[in-house]
Design a protein that fits this description.
Chain B is mainly α and 115 residues long. Chain B contains 4 helices and 2 strands, in the order ββαααα. Chain B is 49% helix and 5% strand. In chain B, strands 1-2 form a two-stranded antiparallel sheet. Chain C contains 4 helices and no strands. Classes of the chains: A mainly alpha (515), B mainly alpha (115), C mainly alpha (130).
Chain lengths: 515, 115, 130
């Protein structure tokens, strides 16, 4: 049973997607039960996968073969079947995606209650989760493309879910236009790889790729497409639009889809094409990261629409991760591995932190929108009296994202500062300025939304329903755990994930056998 | 230990911080105890002083809107914001253009690099 | 397909050689150019479709072997006949389906944009900026 977890991971949300229209017809209770139970089941399965990959294990699952462990049928030079390959790094990403899916589902139960269109909403929600989980789990490049498209198409639909609002349609269209160009470039890269190596399996290509012009072109295409998908600076413009216009539960999941793209980027740079392109690729990641950090937060400081502001913060947070992984990749190629390993652990820690507190912040913004009916900070004020729970959880999340000392955000940023300082002090300076500006903009949000005199227009505002608070509380609890026991998480999960990324040979031999 | 994190150059322990916060809270409460006790609620002492004018009923009239905060920062960094506003001009074909130009740039850089 | 037509196609493809890839690259560039310069949303969506088709052509071309027959093992006749590669054709089928879905979704979004904004000009649909 436990060996089949990778298959169940995809099956559960997909079954949920196709059961949803039926459940919606059966009434509210059935609908809510399906939404919560299927996302909870996905979370439980992902916890099982995390525990199975602890200690450097690699799970391989072959689809449609006579046996799910038979990666190389006799007489074959390359693995021909689609397979899932999950090591410590994927497992952590899968956990992040599943946790955000669960929190978003709990939140949606009450948040979307007053809207129609539940059949479409739930189906697309589960399809998007399936796509993001598949992107994290798959070991086949074409399968990766298919999952990218599954999650993208579902997210276009969900961003435009409130189709009576012109802005929602506009955001969805802009996202879609650039996304389609990116998807086509991804397909060209895949085709070129197939033409050269006759294989699409990630591990098989990793065992053969030794550099050369074609490999470099393909790597550049992958880097650009996935950097676009996770929102790196010059190509980030879709991100604040889409994040602001989607319903809050969906935004929470959009964050994890961008994380899954980030996973793809890192997997391709570290495991499939290690060392291809020399020092250029890590420096591209570092420069993209610095630009995203700085310009993202500069735009965030001056926004006055709460979800748009947070969308710009997502860009700057992705910048931290890109920079940390760039530093790690730079060090993995050279001789000094100590600070590189720390950078990677810090980057992975930050990735987990980011998906947790960003999801929480978007849910808080959704709660504010639900209670007040506006996303404009100019029209909010004095809400701490009527919404104390939301305010409290917002403070925790805001302190964590700004890197205030007792919280988890500081720990990961501290690891990134220390390691990036070894590469160049300017990187650390940019990261610290970004952190200060992040704090400044969240101080503004807190002051504008929660503090100040009570406004007459908001006199009828009440605290949001319990189901929404429960979704937020689950994430707050996770933040507090990461804050109080960072060492437990680091030694069990993050170090394991960083080792898995650096262990290129292990990734290959899990599929190709002892090479 | 589940709470202590060593980085090689130093260590991080959240409970040291919590201890520090507890100590500081005691200090703050001790200082606060020097305050005046003859303050009375719901009297004139409680009223807002608004430059001698009558305080409006609606809080919206006396609060600073969020878009007005950090005005000085925006003015000081005006060149950066001029650039950023031009970048985020809302035109979908420009956004596609940024993607294509960046793709070409990164492709050229990677091709020019080693291996 | 008859034997003579296979041979005729093989002859043409031999004389074309790798320049078929140049044609694909040209179509991709044309689609990109149209996407960046056209202001009408419908024309932009046509450019996206053209790009999808050109990428599909690229995939089919990758699997082509000069003189190859359709990749089915149970055909009557020569058992050792040269086949074109089957995998890129599967990829193409999947890519066509995905392209169809996105084109349909994009057209429906364009219809709704037209209803909301009253225009198909891409430069006038920019309420989200800054």
């Amino acid at each position: 049973m436990s060996r089949h977890l990778p298959a169940f991971l995809i099956m559960t949300p997909m079954l949920g997607a196709f059961l949803s229209p039926l459940a919606v017809m059966l009434g509210r209770t059935a609908r809510n039960a399906v939404l919560v139970l299927f996302s909870l089941a996905t979370l439980v399965i992902s916890l099982g996968i995390v525990s199975a990959t602890m200690g450097g294990n690699v799970l391989v699952y072959v689809m449609g073969g006579e046996s799910y462990t038979l990666t190389m049928p006799s007489g074959m030079a390359y693995p021909v079947r689609i397979m899932f390959e999950i090591d410590g790094f994927n497992a952590l990403m899968i956990l992040c995606v599943a946790a955000a899916t669960f929190a978003g589902a709990l939140f949606s139960v009450a948040y979307m209650d007053r809207f129609s269109g539940w059949k479409r909403y739930m189906s697309l929600y589960f399809m998007m989760a399936t796509g993001a989980l598949g992107m994290c789990a798959t070991g086949d490049l074409f399968n990766f493309f298919v999952f990218v498209e599954v999650s993208s198409i579902a997210s276009f639909g969900l961003v435009a879910f409130w189709r009576d609002k012109p802005e929602a349609i506009e955001a969805s269209f802009k996202y879609m236009l650039v996304s389609q160009i990116a998807a086509m470039l991804l397909l060209i890269a895949l085709g070129a790889l197939y033409g050269k190596y006759n294989a699409l399996n990630m591990a098989a290509i990793a065992s053969m790729a030794r550099g050369g012009t074609l490999d470099k072109i393909v790597l550049a295409l992958f880097v650009i497409v996935l950097a676009f998908k996770c929102g790196a600076f010059p190509m980030h413009t879709w991100m604040p639009d889409a994040y602001a216009e989607a319903p809050a539960g969906v935004t929470c999941l959009l964050v994890t889809v961008s994380q899954a793209s980030f996973y793809g980027l890192i997997r391709i740079c570290f495991s499939i094409f290690p060392g291809v392109g020399g020092a250029v690729v890590p420096w591209i990641l570092i420069v993209l990261g610095c630009a995203s950090m700085f310009f993202g937060v500069m735009m965030a400081v001056v926004q006055h629409e709460i979800k748009r502001l947070m969308g710009y913060h997502s860009i700057s947070q992705v910048g931290y991760m890109l920079m940390a992984m760039g530093v790690g990749l730079l060090a993995a190629g050279g001789a000094e591995g100590v600070y590189g390993f720390k950078a990677m652990t810090g980057g992975i820690f930050h990735m987990v932190n980011y998906s947790v507190y960003k999801a929480l912040l978007f849910l808080c913004a959704g709660a504010l929108y639900y209670a007040t009916g506006t996303r404009d900070l100019d029209r909010m004020g004095g809400l701490v009296r009527s919404m104390p729970w939301t305010a409290g959880m917002f403070v925790i999340a805001a302190a964590a994202i700004s890197g205030l000392p007792p919280f988890n955000g500081f720990i990961s940023k501290w690891m990134i500062y220390e390691s990036s300082f070894a590469v160049h002090p300017a990187l650390t300076a940019i990261a610290m300025i970004t952190s200060v500006l992040t704090l400044a903009s969240f101080a503004k949000v807190f002051q504008a939304a929660f503090l100040g005199p009570a406004k007459a227009a908001l006199s009828g505002v009440r605290e949001v329903p319990c189901a929404m608070l429960a979704g937020m509380a689950a994430l707050t609890l996770f933040i507090l755990l990461l804050t109080l026991f960072p060492s437990w998480f680091t030694s069990r999960l993050f170090d394991n994930a960083a080792h898995a990324l650096l262990n290129h040979q292990g990734y290959v031999s899990a599929v190709m056998g002892g090479v | 230990m589940w709470t202590q994190l060593n980085s090689g150059a130093g260590y991080w322990n959240v409970f040291v911080w919590l201890l520090f916060f507890a100590g500081m809270s005691c200090l703050v409460l001790w200082l606060r105890s020097f305050g005046r006790h003859d303050y009375m609620r719901n009297t004139l002492q409680d009223d807002i002083y608004w430059s001698g004018n009558e305080v409006p009923e609606d809080g919206a009239k006396i609060s600073v809107p969020a878009s007005a905060s950090y005005w000085g920062f925006r003015v000081a960094a005006a060149p950066v914001y001029a650039f950023l506003d031009r970048l985020h001009n809302g035109s979908a074909s420009d956004y596609a253009g940024y993607f294509v130009v960046t793709a070409a740039l990164i492709g050229a850089l990677v091709l020019a690099g080693g291996r | 397909m008859t034997d003579s037509s296979v041979k005729a196609i093989a002859k043409v493809m031999d004389s074309v050689g790798d320049s078929a890839y140049v044609v694909v690259a040209l179509i991709v560039l044309m689609a990109l150019y149209a996407m960046l310069t056209q202001k009408n949303l419908l024309k932009v969506s046509i450019a996206i479709s053209v790009m999808c088709s050109s990428v599909n052509m690229f995939l089919v071309l990758l699997g082509y072997r000069a003189g190859g027959n359709i990749p089915i093992h149970f055909l009557k006749g020569d058992e050792s006949a040269l086949m074109v590669l089957p995998t890129p054709q599967c990829l193409t089928l999947t890519a066509i389906v995905i392209g169809l879905a996105t084109t349909a979704l994009m057209l429906s979004l364009i219809v709704m944009l037209r209803k909301h904004y009253g225009t198909l000009d891409i430069d006038e649909i920019r309420r989200l900026r800054g």
